[in-house]
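haha ok so turns out i had the wrong file open the whole time. this is the CORRECT one, sorry everyone. sequence first:
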Amino acid sequence: MNSYNAIHILVVDDEEDICEILKFNLESEGYNVDTVNSAEEAMQRKLDKYHLFLLDIMMKGMSGYRLADEIRKKRKQDALVFFITAKNTENDKLTGFSVGADDYITKPFSIKEVVARIKAVLRRSDHTADVASEQASIKMAGIELDIEKKRLIVDGIKEDLTPIEFQLLHIMMKNPGRIFGREQFLDYIWRDVNVTDRTVDVHITRLRKKLGSYGKNLITRKGYGYCLEMD
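then structure:
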């Protein structure tokens, strides 16, 4: 994903001027950008062609939250999802991350910030892709992390992961029993993206659910952080 002209972005916002501003500036950076003005219109597109979605939350009809859920859970896509929205409370942000967002930008926004954060997350995704050259999979007891397909397999059942969930699990499975603090995860995964440490907790909770019966092995060490530990 390191060639900008190979990156396809879909902007979904009911404000046409915002769509035009984002399209102009992102295309100036070399990205391929399409825009639509509703989630329903987005659903008519071939969504699997896009590498990144920029979604407003408050739109007429289907909300950005529901569209993100459709992309993540129903269509099982691992494309990057950004929310760009006027909803700016901490709970709003945590809700966004809980439905699988990779970043959350509040309006009014600086276009330079949007471009910088997109580049930061794409660099992070490049790092995730590079992991594939290390080994085909990592196995611990009844769980397996398929590096190439970015997929978790729990007792033979496949579970799709978001890019952030993949990176969190990859770090812990490569270092079984090692405790990682929130700050370490933020530094390794989010880097220069400004998110709160509670964001880590949201993604850990989602990951724990996907681990099924092995969720209990993703342990919280109060005051220290998280680790993956098998009996």
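Residues 47 and 71 are 8 Å apart (CA to CA).
again sry for the mixup
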